[in-house]
Structures are given as C-alpha cells and as structure tokens.
Design goal:
Layout lengths: L2 H18 L3 H11 L23 E2 L14 H11 L6 H8 L6 H17 L7 H5 L16 H11 L16 H7 L5 H5 L3 H6 L19 H12 L10 E5 L9 H17 L2 E5 L28 H11 L2 H5 L3 E3 L5 H5 L18 E3 L2 E2 L6 H14 L5 H26 L15 H6 L11 E6 L13 H14 L5 E6 L2 H7 L6 E5 L10 H8 L1 H17 L2 E4 L4 H11 L8 E3 L7
Helix pairs in contact: 1-2, 5-17, 7-17, 11-16, 12-16, 16-23, 17-22, 22-23
This protein binds 2-acetamido-2-deoxy-beta-D-glucopyranose (8 copies).
Keywords: Membrane, Transmembrane, Transmembrane helix
Protein name: Alpha-(1,6)-fucosyltransferase
GO molecular function: alpha-(1->6)-fucosyltransferase activity
Length: 590
C-alpha cells in the first residue's frame, strides 16, 4: 500500500475508533485491529510498589522469622520498620525488650538477613554505617548467594560488548565466565602465565556469550542470529560515510505498555536490518525518571546495554542536523515508515526461514501447537527482544538483587547459616577465594529457590485484547506440571489483581512469592492505576517480573497477551525451549 494512503486510512480509522471505544486501551486495540495488528495495551504485570525500599516486603506463605537483635537500639528498630525488613512482625519490638540474651537461631537468621539488606543498600565500597551499628564488618558477613555483584558484572559485560581495534568480534571465546575474559586481558596475571591457552579458547568460538543452553534448547539459529545482529549494530567505523542509520523514539502514547513498546522496536529493528541501517533508539519515556541517572536518563541504556555503540549514537545524532544526510537517505526516522511497516513488517530473510522448523513445545488447550500463523514474527520478536536485553544495566541488576533479596533472602540466610561451621557471627569466616571460585563458579547465576514456576495472570481490561481466563485454570496447569515434577512447589506470581492474590490463599500446597502492595481492585481502569503508581514503579516492577519469568524453570501465561508472548520469546532464546510452555489461550493471529 502507498505510504500516504496508508496514513490516511489510519487517521480515519483512529477517528472511528475514538468514537467507538470509551476507554483508551480499547481504542488502541480497535485502531490496531483495523490495520491488522492489535497494538496491545498492557499495563503490565503486576503492580506493586517498587524501588529500593518499597520492595522490602514480599509475602511468603511460609516464612516469618522473629527478629531479635544482639543488643537493641531504637535506631536499628527504626531502620527495620522503615522498610528494610517490613515483612518482619511488629511484635519484634516488644520481644526485643524482653529477650536480650544470647543469639538464637532466629536472631542469627535475621541478623544475617539485615546485614545483607544493608549491604544491598549501601555502595559496594566502604564499610556501611548500618553494619557498624550491628557490630559487624563486611568481612565477617558471608557472601549472599542470591545477590549478584553488579559492578563486576558490568565490567565483564562491557568488555564483552566492545570490540577491540582491528577485530571483528568483541573478546568472545568458547570459554565461559571470567576465565575467558581474563585470558584475553593483556594486563591480567592469568593472561601472562597462561598465554598458550589463548589459541585454544579463541578458535572458531566467536559466539555471543549471552545465550544460555544448547542450540536445541533455543529457537533455531539463535546463536548465529544474535552474533549477526550484534555485528550489524556495531559497524567498526561509525563515521564511515557508507554507514546509514534509523533513529527511532520509543512509542510514547500513554496507552502503550512496555510490551507494545518493545514489539514496536522489534519491528524497527527488522526494518533496520532489511535496509542495512544501524538502529539507534532515542527518547524512552519509561526511563524518564530519577532512577535513571546521567546520560542514561530517558534512554534504553538505563535498563539494558544500548542497542548500538556510543560512537554510532553520537554519529547518528550529529547527522540529524545535516541536511545532506537527509537528502542522501543516510538518516531515516520512524516517520519514514508506516505503522503497518513497523508492526507487521517483513521479518528479515537473511537467515533463511528458521521459523519453519520451530520445535513444538507450546501447549494450548491440551494439545501441542505444531504449526500456527505468523511463526516468522514469533521467531523474530524473540531474537530482537533477546538482543535488546542481552546485558542488563547496573541499575537493572540492582533491581533484581532487591527483588531476589525480598523474596528469597531469608531462605538464603537459612541455607548459608546451616552451611557454616561454628556459630555465626562469632565464628571466623574463611573467605579465601580460590581460582575455582573466582574463574569458574563466579559464572553461575545468583541463587533463587528452584525449581520455580513463574505465572503471569492478567485479567482486568485485558478483555479487549484476548479471552480472559480465570486463575483456577492457571492453577490447574500448575498442578499438571507438578504431577510430573513433584519437587516443584514455588510460584513467582505476577499479577495486577488483588482478587488473584486473595485466591492464591486457597492453594496452601504451593508457596507463592509476590510483592505485598496495593493492587488493582474492582473496576479501576488500568491506565489510572498505572498512573497512580508513577513512572518508575510502573516500569521497574513489571520489568523485574519479566526477567524473573525468563529465568524461571517453568512458565504459565496467556499467549494472547503481548507481554507473555515476549516472555515466551525470551525463554525460547534463553535455553528454556524444553521446559515447555503451557498457555491458557492463543495469540489472536494464530
Ligand atoms: C538506604 O540508604 C539510604 C541512605 O543511606 C536510606 O535513606 C534508605 O532508607 C535506605 N533504604 C533501606 C531500604 O534501608
Ligand atoms: C501485606 O501488607 C499489609 C499491610 O501493609 C498487611 O496487613 C498484610 O498482612 C501483608 N500481607 C502479607 C501476606 O504479608
Ligand atoms: C552491640 O554492642 C556492641 C558492643 O557491645 C557494639 O559495638 C554495637 O554497636 C552494638 N550494636 C548495636 C546494634 O547497638
Ligand atoms: C573512519 O572513517 C572516517 C571517514 O572515512 C575516517 O576519516 C576515519 O579515519 C576512520 N576511522 C578509523 C578509526 O578508521
Ligand atoms: C524520510 O522522510 C524525510 C521527510 O519526509 C525525507 O526528506 C527523507 O528523504 C526520508 N528518508 C528516507 C530514507 O526515506
Ligand atoms: C479445547 O479442546 C476441546 C476438545 O479437546 C474443545 O471441545 C474446546 O472447544 C477447546 N477449547 C478451546 C478454547 O479451543
Ligand atoms: C581457607 O580455605 C582454603 C581453601 O578453601 C584453605 O586452603 C585454607 O587453609 C583455609 N584457611 C583457614 C584459616 O582455614
Ligand atoms: C466503579 O464501581 C463503582 C461502584 O460499583 C462506581 O460507583 C464507580 O463509578 C465505578 N467506577 C468506574 C470508573 O467505572
């Protein structure tokens, strides 16, 4: 269709839609459906309050440790009640006065949990005040298995995302983890001692390090595609006059949830690849808040590594002001494409048709889906989202730490205390780090309580996008998974509905993890609910749930929801194909 007539149709359609729908999200759906795509409004996930202190309380169906302190001081209590461990019962204060004797098991547990909370909140360097007040030093606190060292992860990943001079790839090796990084680092001791390893590790193995699992556990060609997208997005000389750019803002109408924004960007990445342009993303409204500091404000790079190099970004923005660059078509922007091209455009064919042999591991209504419409789009969105989220920013890493700590911190403390010889904190820790810890085990992901089933339950105003399914149906599927894997009893529940949380109490044989905050009740509209949470919370919280869902061992969701569709993509490029996916409904285009 001619671009201009397409645009006209859209205008007409959207006026119609405005008359038809009274709620904004449904308007968007109407517009979308009429032009062949339902741009989903989703509000995302589970709403909850969030942020370093707000995440403090996670509801457990199991744990509730009484907290007692070695020597009470009102200062400490204040810190505790003001957020750090607000899941702790209020009786704490009373009990503290009466029991100041020796540490018992519960006290040790809560002391360790609090020490970790304090370390999480403080900068990594320097002894925290809080620890001092607890009478602890950093070196006397055992490592937290569920927390990631975000600074170190950043360093390592930055190294893996930067090409060296005159090389095609960043220092990717076939060796996983820090050893691979160290041995290519000319200043490292390992490098100098073990130079002869270098050939072995570098040979042939230039695959992107962010792909987990074997080729069979991912969508076809995932490794090659990720590598090629990276190379496409990182030309060796951004100032080369042959390098062309597509500069695009993220969608920013209030009706677009994060999922819709991501889907739109996937379409733009496809266009960029097809037209041999480097995609440069610009204003990202969801990062326009105080959590995103400095140059990452309002940019994708607040949450994940940028889609292209800083040099290319700078170059692209410089060219925006250059008349000649426009005339020669070196620069293109979102307005150069119709929304049809962006939303339902052509999937890049440079890798052939790998979607034609996707492993059928998705089940809907009791049967495996072996073929469906738009398989190419499913495959491409998975690749594009995986690429955009290949490395988390330090900020996102911190958000995940906070979330894991709130959910699994006490369990982790229990495990660690049980593993120590002698009573902590009196016992002296042996914190010797051997090469094994440093180079090999350092590559393991932070601990979470596994096996874990992630469940995203959407209801509310989703009715305009898909057939809404009751929570009971999700739980029926969960029981089915458990029948095969009886050691599964934990569910990471992500939902915006209070009703769902209430119903979860009817399933005492499951442990539910969810953040304890106000949820949507009755007929509040999603848009106003989202607005009431504020931009930072309404972005961070769903993103954390999204990444947890991608990590979980199993997932149950509604493929009819774009958000779950993208989670499916992340799992299918994250080594989880063989976990299977039980969906309560199907995508509306299948
Ligand atoms: C984190 O530290 C800041 C200042 O150091 C403090 O204001 C805030 O309350 C702390 N948050 C938690 C959860 O302890
Ligand atoms: C959630 O928080 C509310 C008040 O903030 C509290 O009354 C309730 O007991 C908490 N629920 C759980 C399961 O901890
Ligand atoms: C507990 O007592 C020790 C010494 O008895 C002191 O160094 C420490 O600061 C006290 N901790 C708190 C939380 O008051
Ligand atoms: C990149 O290309 C520009 C223009 O062709 C050239 O002036 C510059 O020297 C090149 N930079 C490098 C590092 O090759
Ligand atoms: C993009 O649109 C602008 C303004 O309409 C136009 O000048 C430019 O040539 C277009 N670029 C491409 C690559 O189509
Ligand atoms: C699910 O499958 C059953 C038969 O296996 C069929 O009767 C039913 O209509 C299906 N439901 C949906 C929603 O497709
Ligand atoms: C600490 O552990 C290392 C091995 O992990 C061992 O070689 C060393 O002797 C231990 N040190 C002490 C003081 O126990
Ligand atoms: C929600 O329901 C209440 C009572 O059921 C009604 O008074 C209120 O107007 C409704 N709000 C909306 C936004 O529909």
């Amino acid at each position: 269709m001619e671009p201009t007539s397409q645009k006209t149709i859209e205008r007409v359609v959207s006026q119609k839609a405005l008359q038809m729908g009274s709620s904004f999200p449904c308007q968007i759906c109407v517009v979308g459906l009429l032009c062949g795509v339902c741009i989903t409004y989703f509000f995302l996930a589970v709403l909850t309050s969030f942020g370093s202190s707000e995440f403090g309380s996670v509801a457990y169906s199991t744990t509730s440790a009484g907290i007692l302190w070695p020597n009470s001081s009102s200062e400490v209590i204040n810190i505790i009640t003001s957020g750090d461990c607000s899941s702790m019962p209020k009786e704490t204060e009373r009990r503290m006065d009466s029991q100041r004797s020796e540490l018992n098991g519960d006290k040790r547990l809560s002391l360790l949990y609090s020490a970790w909370s304090a370390m999480l909140n403080e900068s990594v360097d320097g002894e925290g005040d809080f620890l001092k007040r607890l009478g602890l030093s950093r070196s006397s606190v055992p490592e937290a298995p569920h927390l990631e060292n975000c600074k170190l992860a950043m360093q390592v990943n930055k190294n893996l995302d930067n090409r060296r001079e005159n090389e095609i790839f960043p220092p990717w090796t076939i060796w996983k983890g820090l050893l691979g990084v160290e041995l290519l680092n000319p200043t490292s001791a390992v490098h100098n001692q073990q130079l002869h390893f270098e050939h072995q590790a570098k040979s042939e193995g230039a695959y992107p390090p962010w792909i987990m699992g074997s080729d069979e556990e991912n969508f076809p060609f995932t490794r090659n595609v990720q590598r090629d997208i990276w190379i496409h997005q990182h030309p060796s000389n951004c100032s080369d006059p042959h390098v062309r750019f597509l500069i695009a803002d993220w969608e920013k109408l209030p009706g677009f949830g994060i999922g819709a924004q991501l889907s739109g960007m996937c379409g733009l990445l496809a266009i960029a690849i097809n037209e041999k342009r480097v995609l440069v993303t610009n204003y990202f409204n969801r990062a326009d808040h105080d959590g995103c500091k400095g140059p990452s404000r309002s940019r994708w790079s607040c949450y994940f590594f940028p889609e292209t190099s800083i040099e290319c970004q700078d170059r692209a923005f410089e060219l925006m002001a250059n008349q000649e660059a426009w005339e020669k078509g070196i620069i293109a922007v979102k307005d150069n494409y119709t929304s049809k091209e962006i939303w339902v455009g052509r999937t890049p064919r440079v890798w052939g048709h790998p979607w034609s042999y996707l492993q059928p591991t998705t089940e809907i209504n009791g049967s495996l889906v072996t073929y469906h419409r738009k398989m190419d789009r499913r495959w491409w969105r998975a690749q594009a989202v995986r690429y955009l989220m290949r490395f988390q920013s330090e900020y996102t890493c911190g958000l995940l730490n906070t979330a894991r700590h709130a959910a699994f911190g006490l369990e982790a403390a229990k495990l660690v205390l049980a593993s120590l010889i002698g009573e902590w904190p009196e016992a002296v820790l042996n914190k010797t780090i051997s090469d094994m810890e440093q180079f090999v085990w350092s590559n393991h992901k932070p601990w979470i309580s596994r096996p874990l089933l992630s469940m995203h339950v959407r209801m509310g105003d989703k009715a305009c996008e898909m057939k809404v399914v009751e929570f009971e149906e999700y739980m029926r599927l969960a029981d089915r998974i458990r029948k095969r894997f009886p050691n599964l009893n934990s569910i990471w529940l992500s939902t915006e509905m209070q009703e769902v949380i209430d119903k979860s109490r009817l399933y005492p044989h499951w442990n539910f993890y969810y953040t304890n905050v106000t949820r949507q009740m009755g007929n509040t509209t999603m848009a106003s609910y989202e607005a009431s949470l504020g931009r930072e919370t309404s972005t961070n919280y769903p993103l954390v749930n999204f990444l947890m869902a991608a990590e979980a061992d199993f997932f149950i969701g509604a493929l009819g929801s774009t958000w779950c569709f993208l989670i499916d993509g992340m799992r299918n490029t994250g080594g989880k194909v063989m976990a299977g996916y039980l969906s309560v409904n199907k995508d509306r285009f299948w």
